[in-house]
């Protein structure tokens, strides 16, 4: 179990996916250049994910119900958007064979750009005591954060 106090107080968790419920938990934050609008648009441009997210091989079109499928590290996930507040929050649940992930983002405008907080909770089908995959998925989520941070940190296009 992970300490719920490790979670940012502004993060919203769906039932069953808090850090206390997770087999693996990952949290990262940084200030990136550009506006929250820019960060939000990059993160929610799902069709573009395979061009910059490591291990993301394919994405199905987003449906009217805000769900889609992602082939990530050779595993198919059905993804459901759980929270979508333009330019400030987004969260999605990904359900795959034997693993469930929830990733949630909080974007806040600061003087230097955008303060970004991302938290990930991983739950596996196996009981926590027998779970060996969640650590792998936790590491993959750490690698994902590094790629997302790099993408968000690219200088925004100038509007001269």
UniProtKB/TrEMBL annotation:
InterPro entries: COQ10_START, START-like_dom_sf. Residues 32-77 form the Coenzyme Q-binding protein COQ10 START domain. Pfam families: Polyketide_cyc (PF03364). It comes from the Bacteria. This is Coenzyme Q-binding protein COQ10 START domain-containing protein.
